[in-house]
Amino acid sequence: MSASNELDLLWGLLRDDPSSWREFYTQYGKLIYRCITCVAAKFPGAMSREDIEDAYNDVTVSLIKNNKRRLWAFNPEKGCCLGSWVGYVAVSTGYNHLRTLRRTPTGKSNGLEEQVSTITLDAIEAREKTVLLNRRLPLLSRRDQKFVELYFFRDMSAVEVAKRMNISVATVYTKKHKVRAKLKKLCADFI
Description:
The protein is mostly helical.
């Protein structure tokens, strides 16, 4: 996959485009599974087939939680392709899952089911809010849309946004409250 196609795919994921998510799993699903399986193979008997599937699901959750912070963290300018980065995320998640399993005493529940269901519900709610927000963003001015992208989606600091938009830092904070109020008003019918 070319760097240009990777960036298009990444942008689609960040915008919650369903076809981008299908393409992502078509392109990288086997890689994620293979990386987690390789981690499990280093510790025979430590992870069951079900644990491997749980770790696979944890990769998805880690990509969408916290406003997709992990997806925003991918930087192709560091010389890494998206496939390598996804493999790194999968391996890290596999090791984290192993650590969680090791902390669980045999025969006792650690509440992992409750944690996963809470995380899953939070992720679904966050995704629904993101879809709603994406439908309402075009109703804002171009300048407000750019502000939302920089401040909320890219999680830039007020100073960085001020420099990018050629405004003062005080204006960034004022704009943040005004844009939030506009979005709440636009989304009020659906929340």
